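Lab manual, section 2.4: Encoding a predicted structure.

Procedure: take the sequence of the chain (342 residues), apply the prediction step described in section 2.3, and record the output as structure tokens. A sample record is shown.
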Amino acid sequence: MNKPRRITIKDVAREAGVSITTVSRYLNQNYEAMGEETRVKIKEVIQRLGYQPNKLAQGLKGPSRNIGVVVVNMSYPFCVSVIRSISKILSDAGYNLMVCETSGDPQREKGVIQSLVAQNIGGLIIQTNGENNALLEEVARTLPVVLIDREFPIPAVTNVVTNNFHASEKLTSALFHEGYQQVLFITESVAQISTRTERLNGYTHACQQHAKDPRILWIERGNQATLESVIEELLKLSRKDPFSIYTANGLIMLELYPLVKDCGIPSPRPMGLATFDEPDWVGLTVPHLTCVRQPTFQMGEYAAKKILMQIKDRNVATPHVEVLPSTVILSESSRLASEATP
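Recorded output:
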């Protein structure tokens, strides 16, 4: 005989017509900003379905020692470094990490957030795509929430970011100062992601400052045709004045680099190579790659300490945005001005 299926918090939320977050708040007796009608409805559904909350959904005695950390790509060096930094601070303070990956999928991100909240986390650090801001605002009413890397104006939430605009502007200017006559910016669709928008704007601003025409090439990671179209453009330029490519992040450079090396255009002349991010493989390239080093350790450290402060005191004043500076690292792949004459 089949065992009856256990009623879950998702069943309650669906039947009551509310979010899992709202049911979790009800179970933990966090009734702030919850209407009487909603409370009554949830209570009625719980009784009718015979839902039995487990310890995590019901809420453990005392504050939770688990902190949710949500990133887009756990294998990406930026995310790995940030997670390690967060882990160091929180582990020393006696907290555990529950790390999740979204792959940039907004529906997956939504499910991850709801699942973590239902498991009674004490706080949330998230690299979001910006399509679940209403949910994050709701979560932030009862839990400390810190956004990392990407900036969005959500009430009661601290953003920890780097100076994407200025770092991008500085790198682009450095390439022009080296003597490259054109800098091609290679990026994915910016959508509503602040890092992509700010890096693009920093690039175009530098072009204006140096009286150069911006040249933007759009790619889709994983789409070989878009990458090959970039190579076609580079081959056309290789017969003209020195130029440089500048990829908006290390993941783009990772996919593009093998094609660039195989196309036969020498670096740093006539083609310079540069990228935002400092991939862990940057020192293995020949020549070594010019890049922007983000303050990943400091970003993770700040986010973790902010979570701990807010757990201790939910009324603690929090800046809306904390900007930490990145560093431009000039290497041989763009050293046109100092290149030895054959």
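Check your result against the sample. Residues 164-294+327-334 form a domain with the Rossmann fold fold (CATH 3.40.50.2300).
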